[in-house]
Amino acid sequence: MPPYLPTTEELDAMNNEWVEPNTTAYEGMTYALYDQPVRGEDKQGSYWYSLPEGYETDTAKRYPVLVWLHGGMSRGSQAATAVKMYREAMAKGTMPPTILVAPQGLPVGWYINSIDHKFPVEDVLIKDLLPHLDATFRTNGKRGIEGFSMGGYGAAHLGIRYNSLFRGVSSIAPAVLPSLANEPKERVWDTFRGDQSYYDKEHPLFLLREKSEELRTATIRVRLLSGGDDTRLTEAIAKMSAVMNELGVVHYRKDIAGAGHEYDQILEGLADDAFTFWNDAFAN
Q1: CA 162 to CA 182: how far, in whole Å?
Q2: Paired sense of beta strands 168-172 and 221-227, if any
C-alpha cells in the first residue's frame, strides 16, 4: 500500500500554520506571537520561550539564547521535552542559564525558503525572529541553534549558512538524506516541488563546501548526533561528518548506541556532555 498523502486542503493548512493553534501551557514554557514583516503587513508567527531562573529578579543580567527547531509534521511545542531537560541541567549547573526559544517553523517547511518563495521560513527566522528576540529579551549576543530530525536539518542549514550569527550548532538526528525521492512526498513537495537541484543547493552538504573556509575560522562549536538504531539516517549523517572531516571543519560527532530516532534517547546517551556543550559554545 502506498504511503498516505495528505489532501490538498490538509497540506495547505500545514503550510500556512505560522501560528501554532495549540496554546496549552507546558511546564516552564510561555506562548508568544511576533510580527513577520518578511511575509507582509500584519503577518505573525508564534513561538514558545522559557526564561532561566533569576531572569525576573536580576534585571541587569543578560543571557545567551538557544533556538530549538521542531521536527517534520510537528510544532514548536515539541520542544517541551528539550526544555524540561535543559531546565534541569541549568538547575544542576551543567548548562549556563539560557533563554530557550522554540519557534513554529511550519510542519513541512524545512527551515528554508521554498523554491517558489511562497513559504520564506528561512528569511522569517533570520530577519524577523532573531531581531525580535534581541528586542524583547535581555540577550547577550550569544546564540545557539539546535533541532531534531527536520529541525536537525534546519539547525545545520541555518547554522552553517549564517555561521557568524551562532556560537553553537547542535544537529540531532538530522534528516539529511541525499536524495529528495527518499523523503515522503507530502513532507517535501511544497518546499522543493520535486526539484533535486534545489534540494542539493540547500542541503547542508552543499553549504559545508560553500562555507568551509568561514567555518574553519569561525568561533562556533558544532555537534552532529544520531541514534545508533536510526537505520534510515545513520549512513547519511555519517557521510556528513566525513565531509566535515575532509573539509577540516571541527565538530563533535557521536552515534548513541541503543537510541532510535528519539531526541531524549540521544541526549540521555550523552549524560552531562549533552549540556556542557553549551558551556563551551557560549564561553567564546
Answers
A1: 27
A2: parallel
Cell of 197: 537541484
User: How many domains, in total, are found in the chain?
Assistant: 1
User: What H or E segment, with its residue span, contains residue 202?
Assistant: helix 196-202
Label residue 136 left, alpha or beta by phi (over 0 means left) and psi (-120 to 50 means alpha): alpha
Whether 3 is in a domain gets the answer no
Which DSSP category does 120 fall into? B
d(CA 145, CA 165): 10
Between CA 199 and CA 188 the distance in angstroms is: 10
- Residue 273: CB partners within 8 Å, gap ≥ 6? none
- Whole-prediction pTM value? 0.96
Q: Which helix (H) or strand (E) holds 168?
A: strand 168-172
Cell digits of residue 185: 512526498
- Mean pLDDT per 10-residue section of the chain, whose length is 284 residues: 63 86 92 98 98 96 98 95 97 97 96 97 98 98 98 98 98 98 91 97 97 94 97 96 97 97 97 96 90
What is the extent of the structural domain holding 46? 8-283
